[in-house]
Design brief:
The chain is mainly α and about 280 residues long. The protein has helices at about 20-40, 65-75, 90-95, 100-115, 135-140, 170-185, 195-210, 215-230, 240-250, 255-265, 265-270; strands spanning about 85, 120, 125, 130, 130-135, 150, 160. Strand 4 and strand 5 (about 130-135) form a beta hairpin.
Amino acid sequence: MNPIDLLPKGVEIRTPIRESIDDCLAALKILHQRLQGALDRLGYRAVSLSFHPTEVHFEGPQNKRRHDFWQWAMEAMLTFGPDVNVSVPETVAERLDLKELNNKVNYYAPALTALTLASPIRGGDLWRIRGDVGKSVRTYHRSATAPAIEVHPDQGLRLEWKTFEMTTSLNDYRNYFLLWLALILDDGLEGRASDQTRIYDFGRVACEGVEAATVRERALEVLNRAPCALTPWGFDCASLDSFKDRLERRHLPADDITAIFEREKSVPETLRHLTELH
């Protein structure tokens, strides 16, 4: 592959390998502070955002890339999100059926991702779909071409979740790890779906959030079962109560961003609210 152009997409913070969620989040906070300090000296601030706030289209040459990879690469230039990576003990890895895991993710991922939706801005304005403000233009764009998870068997079976949205909340990131681990470790979660069904469900979730059909039932099933699946492994699931509260109130991060934009009536002023990690 011969590079043609080098176009900036964003800034990725890659945390080092850590043995616990707490250590990983502590490293993320330190790296975020260092990044903001370096950018501040240049007159910039980084924001946590899931879709480019002003650009709506990117196109580049295929350049020997597989067609599906090329299509996703162009979408990825405008979409942003955390990659949540975990590894499991060998005893778990040996009995893990990756096809079953994929089908399980297909069933539950749209509902769990609905709790994280946070990209209602497109082209410098609120993203509207058939007259209503949508919850996530990022999920809407990426669902048809991007994978929900990636498995890396050559890296100690690194399991990577890719559908959650950007957030300024460390508590949210903690929940991202817990939900992914719950899907991996809970053999009692019986929901299964095809890739095609996952794509359809993500499209509805992107527009309607937790109001989309079956979201509440599927999300609650995982949230309610998570402590039983994770506590024996030493995980504290108390932080998941914040996601239960979102589900109960039907209020998502996207709703907060929408309210800020309607008040500020400016993309830059809205983005100022998304610079601090707390």
